[in-house]
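User: Can you predict the 3D structure of Pleiotrophin? Sequence below.
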Amino acid sequence: MLSQQCLQQRRKFAVAFLAFIFILAAVDTAEAGKKEKPEKKVKKSDCGEWQWSVCVPTSGDCGLGTREGTRTGAECKQTMKTQRCKIPCNWKKQFGAECKYQFQAWGECDLNTALKTRTGSLKRALHNADCQKTVTISKPCGKLTKPKPQAESKKKKKEGKKQEKMLD
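Assistant: Sure. Here are the predicted structure tokens for Pleiotrophin:
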């Protein structure tokens, strides 16, 4: 009896082992039948970097506008494009509309030139603009004691206009 049980266990083991070998062979054949896909070629771009022109406002000298971009390359699909841009209206356009400066307080009035000056250091440059690191500006000195006769003349004009409207 003991030998029959031993034989049965051996047969079961042999069948399981043969099934395992058969499954391995089937999987190996299925993988061998598949063609290996060639790796996609990495496309190297012949195109250069985009070079952008200055922002040109659509109206006036600040606000919304456009800039032109160009790049070079033998196989570039796109060598020119237009991009929307904005020039802030409160920037000092004297130093370039794309350069923002942080200015110091106005200096004392130079009595020889009748001008006062201040310097500014570059705070920010838009779109890789070519900006000076520091700039100096000057303006005429204001008179220290200057009465405001304009305010009185404006009141007189308004009163005159009101009287004209009443007469009409």
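The two ends are 136 Å apart (CA to CA). The first helix runs from residue 2 to 33.
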